[in-house]
Specification:
Blueprint lengths: L8 H7 L2 H9 L17 E5 L5 E4 L3 E2 L7 E2 L8 E6 L6 E6 L5 E7 L9 E5 L4 E5 L24
The chain binds zinc ion.
Length: 156
Amino acid sequence: MTYEVKKSDEEWRAELSPQEFKVLRQAGTEAAFTGEYTDTETTGVYKCRACGNELFRSDTKFHSHCGWPSFFDPADSSAVELISDRSFGMVRTEVRCARCGSHLGHVFAGEGYPTPTDQRYCINSISLTLEPKEPAEGAADGTAEDSAEDSAESGG
Ligand SMILES: [Zn+2]
């Protein structure tokens, strides 16, 4: 597959941290329960850390308790590329960014999670950048932070 974003290893190394390079460009896996987005519930979009392609949305993220951020559906099915991965004596489906070919994680199906697709996109946090959604207009009610003056301190 030809990717829209194509860079040499040297170029990727210059842009990514050593840990990011290992996962994104060498199909590494971060240790379970260590990633920054494992239990994140922030509303927003998750983009490819290598190229910025929008990959997942927070409304498809769910708690799988597997130790990695888990999504039941990509934001757009063409945003990711699925490749049969037979490494380590297993048959798995690798998930890559369709724009730059960087490794994101794996997808598993039929595990019985109560999600609409019964799929689990098990994605390394380090492959993603969360872009939080701006608060909706009108959500802030203009309450000024001048309420709690120290009048309650009368314990003397
Ligand atoms: Zn990418």
